[in-house]
Design a protein that fits this description.
By secondary structure, the protein is mainly α. It contains 8 helices and no strands. It folds into 2 domains: about 1-30; about 30-180, no CATH class.
């Protein structure tokens, strides 16, 4: 015979298991959707902003030397074009969940290059000075890589899991079978 405390604990865990079993199927459909939509909005806002710009801004051309190889040797106009269209098309792909893994991976690469060229602290000599760059700031010398790092963290699950069941990827997988991953 179970003690009243043990019985209460067993009931609580039973209720918890019942709740988890109830929401688990919904999670397969919607768990990645808010992240996909948020990343779609953020990269779309950046990409359409670049698209609307009149040519390559000076700040972009002046920071290109800080980009990782091979992006630091590509002319600024080509880099601007690649960044703009990766963000625009990537945001559309994430919104619809179409080629989600490809776009998430591409946007991670783009974000790493952006961190190296724009968001990384200009000068640091210790980990504590580097950590000062983990903030949101317009001061480029001390860094501001917090938001891009959060973006990478949100894109990683999409690289491994895809767009979720509520995506065009899932629809295509149903139609094309294992040929589409």
């Amino acid at each position: 015979m179970l003690e009243p405390k043990e019985l209460a604990v067993k009931r609580i865990f039973g209720l918890w298991d019942s709740l988890v079993n109830t929401i688990q199927p919904a999670g397969e459909w919607i768990a990645l959707l808010p992240i996909r939509l948020l990343m779609s909005y953020e990269f779309g806002k950046a990409g359409f902003g670049k698209y609307a710009a009149d040519g390559v801004p000076n700040w972009f051309a002046n920071t290109q030397d800080n980009f990782l190889f091979p992006f630091n040797v590509i002319p600024a106009e080509i880099s601007w074009f690649l960044v703009t269209w990766t963000e625009v098309l990537g945001s559309i792909g994430l919104f619809f969940g179409l080629f989600t893994r490809f776009w998430a991976f591409s946007l991670i690469i783009l974000t790493i290059v952006a961190i190296s060229g724009v968001h990384w602290p200009g000068d640091w000599s210790s980990l504590s000075e580097l950590w000062e760059g983990y903030r949101v700031s317009r001061d480029g010398d001390s860094g501001n890589f917090r938001i891009p790092l959060l973006f990478i963290t949100m894109l990683i699950p999409m690289v491994f899991a895809g767009g979720g069941k509520l995506s065009l990827d899932q629809l295509l997988r149903g139609r094309l079978g294992s040929r589409f991953r």
